[in-house]
Protein 1
Amino acid sequence: MARTRDLQLLGTPVWAIALPFVGVIMLIITWGRDLNAVLIVLGAAALVGGIVTAVHHAEVIAHRVGEPFGALILAIAVTVIEVGLIVTLMISGGEKAASLPRETVFSAVMITCNLIIGLCLLVGPIKHWTVRFSAQGTTGAFAVLAALVSLSLVLPAVTTSAPGPTYTGPQLAFAGAVSLVLYGVFVFVQTVRHRDYFLPVEVLQEADSPQESRGEHDHDPPPSNRTTLLSLGLLLVCLVAVVGLAKSESPALEGGLTAAGAPHGVVGVAIALIVLAPETTAAVRAALRNRLQTSMNLALGSAMASIGLTIPVIAVASIWLPTPLELGLSSADIDLFAITVAVGILTLTQGKATVLQGVVHLAVFASYLFIAFNP
């Protein structure tokens, strides 16, 4: 993938302009049709291309606006994809789709808090020995995330006003409103009141080890207004193409999972993995440059946006959706979330990490993935 500096020297790459429109063309060809093997493969390739291109254009915009606004832009872009996928699949999925929002949102939380953070805390220390980040920013973000998950996904499993793992109408409205308020306050703190808590941390000269290296920092000038506006427009085209192609490809995905004997809940895991691919790529690249705070902003920001924005939108959409929302987690998922919270607290309060913390987070994610396929 071309780096931002390439934009200053060579202009926007041809592939970054072409792939969004290739995705739209494939969307037009595949929409509403029963796909044969060739169209499934071509549609999947266009979907991956759209995701990669979305990463590129979001990074261009992020470089222009700077941190932490850049991470926020990418998180919101990913949430738009997620909400679009959930709503479209729930409309066409029948009763089996009642638990899709829970499965997708919880998968996004586990992916961001364990897979993305785990990868970043693995590749960063492998290259830079010990990595540093702002404990004030990451612990504050993680506290908001824990509250959002507990309110939106844990409480519905234990409330008694409605049968099953569901909220009543007033309970769902309250959860949606509080989620939106929590996310809004976090964005205000992140971008205005305590923005310095979320800026990349400079590695101190007095390193803990002589092998600990300084971070690589991009000193390139930001892209021009013209380049930024072009990337913004192409990012929107990418989002439309990705959501539409994922909808077209979903029958093939569900069919493949059914043929493999996988539980229906794995669809939510697959959706979350697809929509979070941009975040994963960007976060790992930042970790390789020894900018762990940027990685943390991307991971935790995406998880919070996935709940703080998705749950309110789904709560409103539930008025028209054909099935009730089953938001309550199973006991196994609640246990995995409790482990994630405990591990996250021990990792994020230190302000620095080694490969050990990365391996622990990845082990928790592997456990979640195993339980998802073998409940």
Note: The two ends are 38 Å apart (CA to CA).
Protein 2
Amino acid sequence: MSERRRVEVGKPAPDFHRTAVVDGRFKEVSLSSYTDANHWLLLILFPKAWSFICPTEIKAFSARLEEFLYSRSCAVVFASTDSEHCLKAWNGTSEMEGGLGGIHVPLISDCDHKMSKDYGVLVEEEGVAQRALFIVDPKGIVRCVTVNDADVGRSVDEAQRVLDALVFKDEFGEGCPVDWKRGDKGISTATNLEGKLELKKSWSEWARPKLQRAWSGTSQRSINSVMSANINAGYRSGPEPPMSPLGNFGGASAMGSPYHSAYHSTMASGQNSPMVLGESFHNIDEAMLAQKMENMQSAMQN
């Protein structure tokens, strides 16, 4: 099997310029010749001429060719890795002798395997194409890909059903449910939105997680160093600091002491936080302020 990836749905179909047998004559055909005419294209690859399953498919599609051309603006072509001379001889041979008996569907020769490789369906070990079907829209975009087992033929009715569904979807913008057929109703596939998501946060809601991060972990060490510097500055020429626990820092025994002055100065200035809050400091709720005071006291004790 070729290592090349098969052409995917929604991707541009590779263009081709090939020799084809059309009504017993050799003619050049290309993908662009169909898309330029605003036609859909049913490109059907088959393993080999003079076989068993392939002629049943080709004759069935040929018998209903008008349903594709005139009712759906869709061309149908078959292609194999056989030479153009082989395909011409096969088409010109009667059905009783194993031939096609003169069908009207173009038979494309891909004897150099380029087309089969471009579409990713070449079985390199055998030198033949897989039993693959591609539906290409008038813009040259692949809209359907099916690959059957070599011994299982395709259905004309199913090919028409899928083609009709694709045309319906393009025209009306609706999806086609299971077993949808031409004339049936479609299903809306649009998602109804009920407005946009609105995020509204107060200043405290926005600042709270940032403050919590700023007052935790390594920030406490920074706070401790700031407090130590302020306290040491207050005692540089003063008496020894009191030996009372800092847990009573706000009590009467500490009021008026250099410790209290340093603590109050640090809190008021906003230097105790990596986020310098300034005037916005007073907008924090009481619970947040109480937590900060507790963190400050813990830092000083350390």
Note: The chain has ten helices and nine strands.
Protein 3
Amino acid sequence: MKRSSEEALALQQIITRLDGFKPRQRWWRRWVKRSAVALILRELDDHIEVLMIKRADREGDPWSGHMAFPGGRMDRQDVTGLRTAIRETEEETGIYLDKAGHCIGRLSDIVSRPHSGRQPMVVTPYVFRLHTAVSIEPNHEVAEAVWVPLRFLMASGNRETMEWGRGKLHLVLPCYFYEKRRIWGMSLKMLDELLGLI
């Protein structure tokens, strides 16, 4: 498909810089709970998009209703975080990344709190590039899936702030609102690192 030279350059920069990128890895991650997610890029007409999902509303889920990337907890049968990202993406969206695309690199580990317990959880993001069209079939964990244009995220005027609070703690945090969907937190941190490669 035809792409603008700016978008084509941006995609090539991501691929080239991911190839030489050294993400921060938590040396202690093998001793804590681990998760992995997939940042899936596709080329459409003259632009590049990244797939995001809105998590279904579920009682007791701290990320209920949040915008996120396909992914989840590493199982014992998962040899690597990459396998976790591929398996969870297929379960949540019906996209089989081994057939529809390929991994072009990974980003830095992010430390998060797990659903339960006091131990931290390490989340590893992997970046994929689709080379064939896909249809999305969300499972019960996903309320919807949406393709977000990178050009929207790259436009500084689209950056906004939000107020977040828990108990006595109140913070002003960066975010995006894409078609009334709020992108913030860990997902935004991953996107910032990805866009920082361009």
Note: The two ends are 21 Å apart (CA to CA).
Protein 4
Amino acid sequence: MTVTSRSRLPEPLFHRRRGRTVRVAAALLACTASAAFAPTRPMTSAADPIGMSSGFYVNTASSPATWARNNSGDPRAARIQTSIGSRPIARWFSNEGGNIAGAVAGYVGAADSHDKLPVLVVYNIPGRDACGGHSGGGAGSVGAYRTWIATFAAAIGTRPAIVVIEPDALGDFSCMSAAAVQERLGMLTYATEKFKEKAPNTWAYLDGGNAGWVAPSTMASRLSTAGVRNVRGFSVNVSNYYTTASSVAYAGSVNASLGYSAGFVVDTSRNGNGSSGQWCNPPGRRLGGPAQVGGGAEMLLWVKTPGNSDGQCGIAPNTPAGQFDPAVAVRLIDGT
């Protein structure tokens, strides 16, 4: 499952009051975030994690921030840190060396200690990236995944968080058998149930692909079967390049087929120049707008880490999937 080299970008719409935080006053929300929140169904299963925090969490250990810190003498380092490393970016979790409880609890706890809202990505379903092949892996069995995801949700507990569940998992069906598809749908349903049960202050979003992949009606059917009603809604454009406008339109079409207005978030990390029709490290892409509440969705987020390779392809033929490449990062900053 967006900017030039400008040094400053708008801060997210959060406001502090009496030691905790709430969203800005109703009059301001009417001009900014209300369009995103008004159409969604009434929230019944979770408190408002936005109102429980004072802004999105910036991970100082993200790959671009770490690279910039470790290569301070490189002339690209300051630009990468300013334009990417200092921004709120989701952290992706897979096996984490077998200690997923500690990794998740530590990350969410660090964010909570600063009164900030972390964005996490669950990316460990067995046979992930089955058809793309660049990011293969995941848990070794259905049972292992069920244990892992239940542990993940429990490690968040009552702390506020945003979670994107299994990017590409509902779009990556074309090379899978019918039995494998049903098995995957069952695992995703279990994941949504665990977040509903164990992480009451989390807004979780089941990934819904992107505007150029699966027809909205088909995606709506898959989301429904995978338990989207157990969570806040769905995510679109994760790790892709479609404009925010086209992504919002796609999500609206998915919602029309769902028959109710689920919440949705858009990954804007690399959509500043839109899509060229290529998905694996294409040239000429640009950073998109920063993480914020509203923007046509419930939230615009940087889900994909800008500068992390999609695989050994495109403008990074020698950089494995998930590895940070400063040359790719600079091209995203410049839009080249």
Note: The CA atoms of residues 51 and 248 lie 23 Å apart.
